[in-house]
Write a structure and sequence with these properties.
mainly alpha
Length: 87
């Protein structure tokens, strides 16, 4: 049960980080325009301008959710095997 609570807290904190990143987008854009020589910032600006940054965030969240679900299933299987081994 403690594992599931920990995973829930991680997901909530990740959602808050995404929300903070979205609200700070205008501040980042202003800072990025002052640092025009950095190509990484230009790529981020392009993704934000085209609206594709949300696709990137969605893919990252989907991959992390898949990994978490896989680990939960694996943990259940290992726990079941441990119980069978003990009995």
């Amino acid at each position: 049960m403690l594992k599931y609570l920990f995973i829930l807290l991680l997901l909530i904190s990740a959602e808050q980080n995404v929300t903070l990143a979205q609200t700070a987008e205008s501040v980042t854009t202003v800072q990025a325009t002052t640092e025009a020589g950095n190509p990484e910032v230009a790529m981020a600006d392009t993704l934000r301008r085209d609206g594709k940054i949300y696709v990137v965030v969605a893919v990252i969240i989907t991959v992390l959710a898949g990994l978490i679900l896989y680990l939960i299933r694996l943990d259940r299987k290992v726990a079941r095997l441990e119980q069978q081994y003990r009995s």
